[in-house]
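Fold this sequence, please.
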Amino acid sequence: MSNAVIAIVILVLSYVALFTEKMNRAIAVMLGASAMVLFGVLNYEQAVEGVDFNTLALLIGMMIIVGITEKSGAFLFAATFATQLVKASPRGILAVLGIVTAVLSAFLDNVTTVLLIVPITIEITRKLKLNAYPYLLMEIFSSNIGGTATFIGDPPNILIGSALGLGFTDFLKELTPLVICCLAILLLTFDIVYGRKLSTTEEAQKEVMDINVYDCITNKKLLYKSLSVLAITIGGFIFFERYNLPNGTIALFGATLLMALYTCGLPHQERDTKTEEAFSLVDWTTIFFFAGLFAIVYGLEAAGILEFLAEKALEVVNGSVEKAAYMVLWTSALLSGLIDNIPFVATMIPLLKKIEISLGGREAMMPVWWALSAGACFGGNGSLIAASANVIVAGIAAREGRAINFIKFLLWSIPVMLTSILIATAYLYIRHFM
């Protein structure tokens, strides 16, 4: 068999294993990556070359920073403070948790955000004797919308930003207005459908209001250290854009600095234990998932499949960047609603790179890249399996006895996704093609 046929078979089998969840997602793609080498599609050097180590470094660094920061109680403090800010009003909490989730998703990643926010939400709704369902729905949608605003907010953006050498402010300037518009419409819709009908007792509200938010801070020294390093890291993303310093390098520096501050002054044995604890905060399953995925996609490129698809795509758009942008936006959204948006974007990036020269080069193609980002991130709201954050929220909710039904979720997710993509279509037209 030709390398192209072998690569397609490996891709299909890997993705079937991935989407049917018959095995762990990291194992599924690592098997596929190994098969690319074993069957001669790639040699070992090519497989390593295909891995984007800047993306992996960025993910590892941010996971460590966020994990250590969480130990200080900073995120619990933020959620509790926001709840008390609206006087524990069920309607107000629905809006404020949506906003908090969106903002955190922009500056952390949406998976980490929901891991932090959802348990707090379940506890708050339990105290107020409220149905957690609308709050969890809001947080799923807000995390995917908010994560679109920055390159560290959602894994698809991390992939795109790393592949193109885009910086923190590039995403912020281009996509934040779109995100704000979509989030505002989402909040308004949820307030009309759910917010005005939610109610609780004065006793329950008093119980929440009586919580001392400062008790949420478990380690003040660690809080100051963590927030300082987080600010330095994000500032580094912005400042070093002009010097083309890889974002992964900045994130790893921030993580190493925070680990040094976290373990500074401790006895030798305790320092080593804390260091191991910090490294355990990294989700190594996700890291190996990305590494395997990069190798599989590089196998498609090496086999000439992406070049063939690129030629077909050029025929469809007939040399028009505008047609290409709309096609990528809607295709990304619809397919990301059916499958996990991470492998989809990983496959699309080298494909789009193949057609850049024919469509006028990188600068001319930027609307298409922004369309891929918006389509994939907003498409993550299309179904319960469309984004990792959705699956995690559903899992936590099920463990707490508040299961989210797949079909019932679609009644909300499809309209939310389609509305977001319609707004994105209009935004692209006004900003780039009007």
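The first helix runs from residue 3 to 19. The mean pLDDT is 87.
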